[in-house]
Amino acid sequence: MGQAFACCKGLDFSHMQHHFAKGARQSFVLAAAAQQPSWVVDDMQDSCYGCAAEFNYRNRKHHCRRCHNIYCDACTAYREKLLLFGFTQAVRLCQMCLTAAREENSFLDDHLPLLQEGSTFLRHHGYGRKVPIFVKLSPDTASLVCMEPGRGAAGSSLVFLAEVRSVSMEHASTLVLQLQASSTTLKFDACSTNECRAWLEALQAACAWSQRPALKQAVEEARAARWEQLQYAQYSKAAAENRKQRQAAREQMAAKYNISSFSSSYAHRRAVSNGYAVS
């Protein structure tokens, strides 16, 4: 195995790295820019999306730079980089987006550079055979590109991250990828335990990322659900106000005609009409 790694380290993969010269972070930012949630216009919202406090000259409107919803100052009192949208300086965020942005920044800062740069492994084949292979994240960040030296297109294959069921570590330096649709197991020997652990964390984060719901879809669905809640709340409030007005009209009628037991008589007649025995 030591000789195999010595041979593996001696291989020149510079032409493969040049082929994927464009940064994966740029691909993430471009893809995210095309899928950003729609910007909520100021005139469309009269209260905070978070706490429902009404806006006025003292309680001003502020947009969260990730979900683009409108909040009050207190609900957007958080600041964090938003690398997914290309903001390298801290911007205004709501609490929910603050947590998500920190997770995104961790992936883009800590794991993406490793996946983007790529590394050389020994891939397990049948009958104990191991073949040197260069592995890195594809430009669209949706898959791992595996390339065998000297074989051109015939030696290249893709492993789609959305199809990876689990990523684990075996022995001291072997990565194990279990695929979803089949019982296929892919094994890659890294050059060291530290490198294997770094790739393990990076691949687990990348697989989780690939299965995240689209931000635009998630935000739009949450807005639709919130709108239905507001509509129901307004209906319930109007219905309660209507009942209150009817009750006030009955009491006013009772006072006008000196019917002290108007409400109780009305309740009595209603109970009788519904077939209830009233003593």
UniProtKB/TrEMBL annotation:
Residues 42-102 form the FYVE-type domain. One of its GO terms (molecular function) is zinc ion binding. InterPro entries: FYVE-type_Zinc_Finger (IPR052113), Znf_FYVE (IPR000306), Znf_FYVE-rel (IPR017455), Znf_FYVE_PHD (IPR011011), Znf_RING/FYVE/PHD (IPR013083). This is FYVE-type domain-containing protein. It comes from Tribonema minus. Gene3D superfamilies: Zinc/RING finger domain, C3HC4 (zinc finger) (3.30.40.10). Keywords: Metal-binding, Zinc, Zinc-finger. Signal peptide: none annotated. It holds the Pfam family FYVE.
